[in-house]
Every structure is written in structure tokens, then in C-alpha cells.
Design goal:
It is built from 23 helices and 31 strands. The chain has 717 residues and is an alpha/beta fold. Strands 1-4-5-6-7-9-13-14 form an eight-stranded parallel beta barrel, surrounded by six helices. A six-stranded parallel sheet has the order 20-19-21-22-23-28, sandwiched between helices. A four-stranded mixed sheet has the order 8-10-12-11, with helices on one face.
Length: 717
Amino acid sequence: MQSRETSTTPLELWGGVECTVVRIGDEYRDQLVETGHAYRMADLDEIARLGIRTVRYPIVWERVVGDHPDKLDFSWHDERLRRLRDLGVKVIGGLVHHGSGPRFTSLLDPDFPAKLGHYAAKVAERYPWIDRWTPVNEPLTTARFSCLYGHWYPHTKDWGAFMRALVLECAGSLLAMRAIRAVNPGALHVTTEDMGKTFATPALQHQANHENERRWLSMDLLAGRVGASHPFRETLERHADRKLLDLLATGEAAPDIIGINHYLTSERYLDERVDLYPNVEPGTNGRDTYVDLEAVRMPHLAEEVGPAARLREVWERYGIPLAITEVHHGCTREEQVRWLQQVWQAAEQVRSEGADVRAVTIWSLFGNVDWRSLITRREGIYDVGAFDTRGGKPRPTMVARAAASLATGGKVEHPIIHGKGWWQRPERFYIGASACEPAAFGHHPVLITGATGTLGQAFGRICTHRGLQHVVTDRATLDVTDAASIDEALDRLRPWAVINTAGFVRVPEAEHQPDDCFRINTTGPELLAAACHKRGIPFVTFSSDLVFDGQKGEAYLEPDPTSPACVYGRSKADAEQRVMTIDPRALIIRTSAFFGPWDRYNFLHDTLGRLHRGEEVLASDNSMVSPTYVPDLVHATLDLLLDGEQGIWHLANEGSVSWHGLARDIAGRAGMSPRKIVDSAGPRADNTLATSRGQLLRPLESALTDFMLHAETLPGR
């Protein structure tokens, strides 16, 4: 075995590619395919550019082996592993990642260990230079989800099946490492698991005690600690092969590095007082009925949860070198970075106390798909990682910039780091929650113009929700058409970014008030861009689908030349040109027909109001648009700003509909008759916005559903 490094070496940043291949019924889901990594060789160069020199990388059994154990195809892996080696990136090879193997085996197959060992031998012979291996990722978690909860194949919900599967996985790890070490005697075993702790009310402490003892079971089995006196030995012997238990008790499979995959939802709180949580579905252990909650949302546990506490527990129990082998948060961009920062600091803190913590791993480098439903539903929900791949190639996000800094020994530097993550703010609590101060800013805020408009108010609301320090200005505080007013406000408020939502929005009236329209929509952004560029402040402003005349015959993309057919459209097109001339790094968001849940000033609310009053609704069936849900628009804009994006982006919900079709749709959702919705005809125009940079907003259908659920005031309600 190789000698173990000491914790005097700097904390490393590793990377990981979400590579789950899981069987649901007779169908396999492959995250490498669903995130597109399977088709993008250039992803590996992006990993290396971050400064990452070790990556958890899949050589997953199900992707190599077909219907027979000796029918192997390594061609995909040969090419990629060779490239990683050329880039100087070390590999931790993963063989089974939440899966149950090819179709000729399963987690309940008595021959699963031998078959995995056979596969591991083939892999090691092909890649003898790989010296760190994870034969089975999260064996306890996989056994729970597959055999105790029934989410994944073989879909059992049986305690005995869970116990058998876990022992078979651990024995598979042992035989896999034995086969690997026959080729490379110095190969290290990197075992991963979620070590989240369970807390409970006094009445449910017995259940918490059971789960807290159970959480150690995979590591105890691998480390050879499940002897005659182990709390689970008797039940293991009832359900699993005693010969395998004795083999594991030798400690041959002991990890060289224990990898902890810690998430914000890893730690749980059990409470039998289900009436206190009306929006949480209760469950049962067969004896008690209770809710299973995120422990981070319970105020009395604030000092007991978090990665540092779990690292200390694992180090104290095993004394084996540690790594945090997955850090991912499927949330907004600043929350992803705040979580990465907190986990990194926790690792550094526990290292300073004497624990041998080797690394922190950026997980889901290229995102993941449908993990919000544990991949059990095909909803296509993509969570961004260090890179956003929705544009067809990996686009570095703010997480990537933070990772690059940490990988080279630096720190994460950005004003948002001063804010607290949602898991640290008082509104997170199930009971006793309190709202954030909506406009407090002690450090450099985001400055948002247009306090009285729909967009300005939405940005203020969502910045508060996201814990982003901000200030929303009205015309008295900052007049966008007055250079002196802009300079005074920027010098006084010292924002780190400016988002301009001020504008002349009355499209028909612009034809009669062109001077006012151009002064606000064109001169205003021009002056703001100049002031921000002079100070090096990122600048965001909004444009419109009306910079196009609708005669292209198909959806418009960002590079298409503008062709406005109205005064309002010309004011926006001129603003785009002037802003980009002054500051090519500015971010210009083109959007269309936005509607939101927090005000009445949109087509949907007006339609429902008229129908409720028995009035006609005139709406053209010849005019096609891309309606845009304001919360989606604001969130995506903030993420792009934090990512450092620039240039023109089209942000609209995916889909296209005529104004007439949209009116009928929303009437149907509200249970109103569409009888009074009249086609106003008019010239044909298709102002649908599509994108060549990546579709960031969800389908229109989902946005309309949300609108109906969350609109604060709807006629007829």
C-alpha cells in the first residue's frame, strides 16, 4: 500500500462528473448522456483549466459491459482517460454509481460481488496507471434507495433485502479492490457515503438512534468493524451470507480515504407533531407516524448541523484520511458559491483541529438532470454545476470561477460572499421563521433602477429572497436621463453591479411620444452604461422582442439583425447599439410579453379581469410572442450577472403562442368561458424569441401553471 500523505499538504480541490447509471424498471437512465457529457470531449479541457488535478471519473460497469460479462467496450473511456492523463489530471475510477449492474446481475444477486470483481480486473488491466478507485459509490444510500425505499431497481421495500444488498455491495468492493491490487498493489480504496445525522423529538429519539447507528453500517462493514458485538451483526446474519460477513470482518476492504458526500438535506429531523407542518407529507416506520424534515430548518439545531460536525464524527470514529467527495447545491448561483465556501471553510477548520482532510470535491461539474425526483421522473429539470451546458457547450459559471480560485490556493472574492445562505437565514425555519430585511445593504449592493415598475419591484423582491444586498432606486434617487444624477448615486451607493429596469413601457403611446420614449429607453441606458464602464461596474439592461419586425418567418436568435417596426422597438434597438459600443462587456437581456404574480399590469391579469366583468377581450391570432414569467426572468438574469456574462441574451419561457391563444389558455386555467375572447386579426407577425446561447427558462406551460398557483390577486378568486 502507498504511504499516506499527511495533512500538512494544502487542501486540494477535486472535481467530479455526475455519472449515475440507474435502472428504473427495465429502463436505464444515464446522467452522462442526459447532461451531454457523453458527447463532449472538450469538457475534460475545461476541468483542467479550472486547476483541478484530481477528478472522480466514471468507468461505470453498465456503460462498458453489455449482456455478457466478457463483452466489453472501452472505446469511450480509452479516449477520455487518455486525454485526462495527457492533461495531468489524476483519476479516481468509479465502477458502480448508484446502479445495480448490467442486466445479468442485480443488487440482490448472490454473485454480484464476484461479477463486479471480474469486471474490476478487466478495468485494472486496461488502466493500470489509475491508483485510486471507488468500486461502489455510496453503498448504504444505494441499498436504501433501491431495496428499502424501492425508488430504483430492484424496487423492493424490504429490510432483509436492504441488508443483503448492502453486504453484497461491500463484498463487491472488497473483491474489486482485490482484483485491482493484483494489477496495482499500491491502489487506494476511496469509499464514499452520505454520513448525514438524524435528530428527533424525544418521542422519536429511538428512531433517530436507529438511523444514526445505521448510517455507519457501510463503513463499518468495509473497515472490518462488524464483529460479533456489532449492533447490526445479528440482523445481518439473518438476512445476508455469513461467509461474506466474515470476509468483510477481516478488514481487507478498509478504505484508504473515506469520502463524505454531504448535502444540505443530508441531516434530518423527525417530529411526530405532524399538525405543525401542514405542507409536509408524513410517513411511518410501521409504529410511529411522523414528518421527516431538513434539520437545517430547525432553529434549535443550528450549532449541531453542517459539514464540520460530520467530518469530526467520521474522523473520531475511524481515524482514516477524509475527503469531501461531493459538494453540490441545486440552487441559485450565489447560494451554490456560498455553500462551496462554507464546506471549504469547514474542511479547513477540521484540518486545523488535527483531522487528516485531504480534499473538497466540486460535484456535478456539468450539472445533473432530475435529481430533484431522485431520477424517478422524466421531467428534464437541469441543475447547473460549475458549468452550464444548456447552450451545447460548457459555459463557466460563477461556481467555476470560485473553483478556479480555490484550486490555485486563492479565496472566493465577491460581494455576495458577505451574505448568508438560505440555510443560515431566519426565513428558513419551519416554525418561527422571519423575513429578511428587504433593502439592507452594508457592503456593495446591487443597484436596481426603476423602483415603481414591474421589473424593478420583482428584482427587489427576489434579491431579498436570495439574500442579495441591494437598493432599488426611483427617479428622485437616480434619474437615468441625467448624467449628474447617475454619477452622484453611483459614487454614494458604490454598487458592485447596476441593473436597469427603468423604461418607457407604453408601446402604443410611444408612437405619439417618441421624444420621451427615446429619452428614457435609449439615452438612459447609454448614460448608465458610460458611468458603469468608467467605474468598472457590471451593467445589465433590458431590451425587447420588438427590435424585430416579426417577418423572419421563424424564431429570432441573438445574432439576427434588428428590424424594428415601431417607435418603441427603435428606441430599444438604438439602446442596444449604443450600450454595446460604450461597453461590450454589458449584459443586454431581450425579453417578451412578461407576466408576473405580483401585480396587475400584464395581459393575463387584464384578460381575466375583463372576462370576470363580462367584457370582450380583443387579442390577435396573427401575432405570435414568447410570454415570459417575471420570476423566471429575474432569477436567470441574476444568475447571468453573477456568472459574468455579457452581450445579448434572449430570455423568454420556451414556447410560442398567439395573443389570442394565450388569452384562451389562461381563461381555461381560470375556469372561465373563452366565449368573449375575440380575434382582433391584424397583420401577421411572429416575434418569438429563441436562443443560440442556451435555453435558460423553463417551458411556458410550467410557467403558466406557476402563475395560476402564485398570483397574489386574480379576478374571480
